[in-house]
Amino acid sequence: MKILVFCLLALTIAADKFDQFRAFDEDEFGRTLIDTLQMQMSTGEPIARFIEIMRNLETSIENEQKEDDKANNEYQNQCTEDIKVLQQESANLERRTVEIQSILDELEPLRSYKQGQADAKNAWKVETEKKLADLVKKRETEKAEFDKKVEEHDYATFVIETVRRMFSDKNQSFLQMNNESQWQKVRDYFINASEQAKKFEIKKSYSKMFNVFAEIANAAQTEDFQNSPTVSRIVNLCDLMLKQIEDSKALETKAEQKRLNMFMLEKGNFDKDLTTLNNALAQLTAAILSLDNRIQDQKRDLSDYNARLAAKNKQSEDRGNECREKAYNYQLTREKREQKRQLVSQIIGAFSANQRDFAEYVKLRGQAGDFRGKNFQILGNPTED
């Protein structure tokens, strides 16, 4: 039946007009409009009422588009303003990060320079301390050597003075000995002294000197001790040796004092250098610590500002995407609404120009059962898909 009716339509209505009407019918919104016309015809209302409804619908679509255009313009203007504000905030944050980085670019090389100074002064301090330690060690060695010389000089003095007293003091127990016993005692005393002197570390020559005295005493054993010329010879030698030992000791003492004075001078210079170095190191350490604190503060600030900048850029990007999505959806809605407005306009034009053919098409269409039963409420929301 439906096929027959459409065949009759095709025969009754010109082909170009039929194709136009059928094209309207193939569009979902166009079919709704034709359903509305068919309902109008079925209720017996004047056809002019349909034209009025279509014109009102067209006006409504245009008004809705104007309102949508206005809302979109306001929204996009707000987007522009929001993005401008966000970009300015990002620029401010980025400028601050550049400022902080600039501060770091000054502080970090300064810190490295100060550390280099501290390292150099530390190395100088270590070297100075080593030189001072070497100087003290050298002085201790010199002092020990001097003390050993004094000890050896004193021993030699003691030995010679002891023998000197044997001859000069009227020691009754010594004088009561026979000649051989007296000279033997002197000889043995010098031999024992020579053996002790062999242990000397410095004045080893004293051992030979004591041996000479022992040989003299040994050669004089046949002489009368009381009247022996060897006694005077030994006494004179003892006096001479005591004078030489005293002079040698005086020279050693003078040299020791000179070494001590030189040591005190050099040590004083090292102490001054170390005091200066320690003061400089204390100042450098404090400066480095201050720089470390400032650098850490700046790095924390830089990290914070970088995080805030990233968040602000993300916010700006999200806002831009939101605005672009809104603009895209607006454009799609506008295109769809414009298509509907054009379709309404075309239907009005086609119906006005070909009212009889259009009415015949709608009538036969209804007989073919092509009416979907839609009502006028659909026209109240022409933008609904």
From TrEMBL:
Keyword Coiled coil: yes
Coiled-coil stretches: 47-96, 274-315
Keyword annotations from UniProtKB, A to Z: Coiled coil, Signal
Signal peptide annotation: 1-15
Protein name, UniProt field: Uncharacterized protein
Originating organism: Paramecium sonneborni
